[in-house]
Amino acid sequence: MVTMPEPDRAVLANRSRIVQDLRAIVPGEGVIADEDELRAYDCDALSAYRQLPLIVVLPENTEQVAAVLRYCHRNSVKIVPRGAGTSLSGGSMPLADAVTLGLGKFNRVLDIDYDNRCVVVQPGVPNLAITKAVEANGFYYAPDPSSQIACSIGGNVAENAGGVHCLKYGLTTNNVLGVEMVLMDGEIIRLGGKHLDSEGYDLLGIVTGSEGLLGVVTEVTVRILPKPETAKAVLMGFESNEQGGDCVAAIIGAGIIPAGLEMMDRPAIHAAEDFVHAGYPLDVEALLICELDGPSVEVEHLIERVEAIAREHGATTLRVSTSDEERALFWAGRKAAFPAVGRISPDYMCMDGTIPRGQLPTVLARMQVFSQRHGLRVANVFHAGDGNLHPLILFDANQPGELERAEEFGADILRLCVDVGGVLTGEHGVGVEKRDLMPYMFTEDDIKQQQRIKCAFDPGHLLNPGKVYPTLHRCAEMGKLHVTGGRLPFPDLPRF
Amino acid sequence: MSDIFHPRTEAEVAEVVAWAADCRNTLAVLGQGTKQALGRPMQADHTLDLAGLTGILDYQPAELVLTARAATPMAEIRAALAEKHQHLAFEPPDLSSLLGTDGGEGTLGGVVSCNLAGPRRSAAGAARDHVLGVHGVGGNGVPFKAGGKVVKNVTGFDLTKLLCGAYGTLAALTEITVKVLPRPEKVRTVLVFGLDDEAAVRCMGDAQRSRHEVSAAAHLPAALAVASGVDLVAGAGGAVTALRVEGPEPSVAWRCEALRNELGHFGQTEELHSARSLRFWQEVAQVAPLAAPADRLVWRLSVPPAGAAQVVSRIRHSIPAQAFYDWGGGLVWVAVATDTPDAGDEVVRGAVAHVAGGHATLIRAGAEVRAKVPPFQPQPAPLAALSRRMKDSMDPGGVFNPGRMVADL
Fold it and tell me: Can you give the residue range of the structural domain that contains B56?
């Protein structure tokens, strides 16, 4: 388990006063201080980590957010921003001495602008609700994390959420045009808008994926896309992970960028098939789902090419969806993979590393070694198109030591991802879950360079402390310059 | 004494920067220097010439990733990618003819530092959407890396994005990893003739809202269309609205036909095939229609696309101006006479703010004008203060490109 920063005793001692002051800012039911009610906020989707928040505040408008932050800034009270609480990495895990700032009441779609192909929403609006709001007119919002029914767009911005369509349509950061946000000192700023690109430093790019460490987003403008004319999926089964991996490389190598390209390994295929009966072959080691979307002429043309590539790579199962219902069925097993695994194991832990695609067979083979070493099973679902792995580690939290072993297993997998040229997290965020692995991927100097951003936004480290970075360097210290005595140690450096 | 440093390695870059920071000296950072005329003119103590940091370090077509040293010429990168039928999807434009610099399209680091993007911007993003990771040296002279070499990565703050478009004011880039993509098999362009600006913006909007995956949409008014090097555009005898369609051949043919049917009510249509298409979009990307005469001032407006024509009409109400549209209206290039009072600052930025917001950059003007009129859109006070804190935090000694983006920053 990770250790969180020592709570500030002065803040704990002052709790009733803080509650009273916050009630003056957010009236009525908007300030929660009762222990039973706080219980509902004691974790996010990383439910192995629990902590009662100091207080929960549910503001209703930007001015209230600004006033709460200004108050907390002045009184050195920490803030943990929270959207729908679906973070898989503990991004909104509460702290004992922090106010959890819930954006659930920011739930309105403010402006649907078809002329400029964008939608302005409040951050508490669920991801899928954006698509629902525009689909009657033939549009949709592209990033589709698997929690899209529940997860909020504000949380998507904080985590730079992905989904199965990232390879073709990008992550949240490629689909957000602007935000309104409140800085820790209560200042309200706007970044971007309905136009493209920043007029100065790309602060919108920095805020997206900053995991609640830089500010509180109070409004989001996203671009919407015309719904593709048609979509079809190909289901391919292979006798080995190598064949499956090679087929992925060959599809991309042929110049095809599918809308989605997913892979599942044998344990995941079996768990999913038992659960939803999608008609997956059970005699294969690897299953690929390749979805192509766009104009029907193009989809037909590319489907034929994908089929040919699959045959060349020895696919033993090869089926093309003949209707939207069948396409949905192909996806049903993949989309239900997590709950399916949940049925065969009391608990599971979902990892999220990214690797260069070509390393897939190596990584899957190593994972089997880890599995034996830790005595725990693993099932793999994989956004094969963009190299994003989701190994699901199966364990039983009621067995003493299993959670710790699962965590060790997970850490081994993530270190392996970094070793083969990949990264710790592709779309779930660092949060508290992967925080202590950050030094494995980044040197101290790399991390300091990132933290310089934090110093510009929140030098007092009041926003979401204990997340993402194992230690926060004091900003004043980082401002100091390295003394060279005015000498250039490279006397042979060409200069003229 | 002003020196020009020519480091050959990241370690040497680090030494120069640490030394400069320690001596409280400033450095002008450049690659081939093709974009020096962008932004405010600088007076730095020394020059950090990164042109020695060249070469593609790693290119794996199947991984869709390329890593190169920061000052690798764009021409070299383009050639390597073309050999594998790939490209940089954000279509980095060569602005040398607009800016009157020779030396071609410059370096990868230059493209990234200025966050440039061509006509495919609205469909595929800008440089910032395609840079996966960088190595660089911070203002304290310490080397660092940011991001990674895989397309999907949310590990830590996205420092890479901040460095894209920072005009070299926050760090000296030494190595860059970009996402590369397959080049479309086929390119065609549907032309719609004779539309006024308002109708053209509606036409481009309709095309972009269609399901035909238009990868670029531009409009040249009659006076600019006539100067095109593409015969079907120059000979149109009026304004030309252009919609690019890319992809596998059967798809492209079908979509072009569909677009011509759906947009036929706007005006007469025509189609450009491969070679003419490539030439036309190169002209648009390079801002060729406004390149001559070379002494005119050129503004680049990023606005919500639907209001583009209104912005231009409002500008024209106050000052004579020539304009054309890219990104379906989201990007407007405006040329005004050299002697326009305050370079048209108040009128141009006023029009952008009045219609629907956005920002305007003075892209081409003499150094004395760029010293007086802020080339980059001035920001509201809280945002300007945040940008200043960012600069102070990343470059505490104020070493890099002093005043390039904002005076005294």
Answer: 1-183+378-409
Tell me the ipTM for this assembly: 0.97
Domain architecture of chain A: domains with CATH: 9-102 (3.30.43.10), 109-226 (3.30.465.10), 230-338 (3.30.70.2190), 345-435 (3.30.70.2740)
Q: DSSP secondary structure string, A225-272?
A: EEPPSEEEEEEEEESSHHHHHHHHHHHHHTT---SEEEEEEHHHHHHH
DSSP bridge partners of A8: none
What's the mean pLDDT when you consider all of chain B?
A: 96
- Please, which residues 232-261 of chain B have a Cβ atom closer than 8 Å to chain A? 247-248, 250-251, 254-255, 258
CATH number for the domain that contains residue B357: 3.30.70
Task: Summarize pLDDT for B192-244 with one digit per residue, the tens.
Answer: 999 999 999 999 999 999 999 999 999 999 999 999 999 999 999 999 999 99
A 299-338 → B contacts, CB under 8 A: 301-302
State whether B266 and B280 are in the same domain.
Answer: yes
Tell me, yes or no, whether B243 and B338 share the same domain: no
Put simply, the chain B residues between 160 and 189 with a CB less than 8 A from any chain A CB are 161-162, 164-166, 170-171, 181-183, 185
Using the predicted structure, report yes or no on whether residue A481 has a pLDDT greater than 70: no
Element (DSSP H or E) covering residue B48: strand B46-49
pLDDT at position B1, please?
A: 64
Tell me which residue of B236, B331, B237, B233 sits closest to B277, measured CA to CA: B233
Give the pLDDT band of residue A483 (cuts 50, 70, 90).
low
By C-alpha distance, the chain B residue nearest A353 is B153
Minimum CA–CA partner of A139 in chain B = B209
Q: Tell me how far CA of residue A255 lies from CA of A234, A250, A264, in angstroms.
A: 17, 9, 23
Interatomic CA distance for residues A297 and B213, integer angstroms: 13
CB pair distance less than 8 Å for B140 and A386: no
Where is the domain boundary, B259, B285, B311? Answer: B285
pLDDT in tens, A110-168: 999 999 999 999 999 999 999 999 999 999 999 999 889 999 999 999 999 998 888 89
pLDDT in tens, A286-336: 999 999 999 999 999 999 999 999 999 999 999 999 999 999 999 999 988
Residues β-bridged to residue A120: A111, A221
Domain stops at, among B251, B285, B319: B285
Q: B170 and B124: one domain?
A: yes
Provide the whole-model pTM: 0.96
Q: Are B356 and B409 part of one and the same domain? A: no
Contact: B383, A191; criterion CB under 8 Å? yes
CB distance A160–B158 less than 8 Å?
yes
Structural domains in chain B (count):
3
**Cβ <8 Å between B140 and A481:** yes
Q: B110 and B163 share a domain?
A: yes
Whether residue B59 is found in the same domain as residue B118: yes
In chain A, what residues touch B144 (CB-CB under 8 Å)?
Answer: 443, 445-446, 448-449
Strands B4-5 and B46-49: parallel
Q: What is the per-residue DSSP string for A345-408?
A: SSEEEE---B--GGGHHHHHHHHHHHHHHHT--EEEEEETTTTEEEEEEEE-TTSTTHHHHHHH
Contact yes or no for B392 and A479 at CB 8 A: yes
Cβ of A457 under 8 Å from any chain B Cβ? yes
Mark which residues 122-161 of A lie under 8 Å from B by CB: 138, 159-160
Regarding whether B146 and B19 lie in a shared domain, the answer is yes
Using the predicted structure, report yes or no on whether residue A495 has a pLDDT greater than 70. no
CA distance A8 to chain B (A): 25
- Provide the CATH number for the domain around residue B209: 3.30.70.2190
Once rounded to an integer, what is the mean pLDDT over residues A414-429?
Answer: 96
Q: What Å distances lie between residue A154 and A207, A225, B9, B77, B394, CA to CA?
A: 11, 19, 42, 37, 27
Residues B111 and B248 in one domain: no
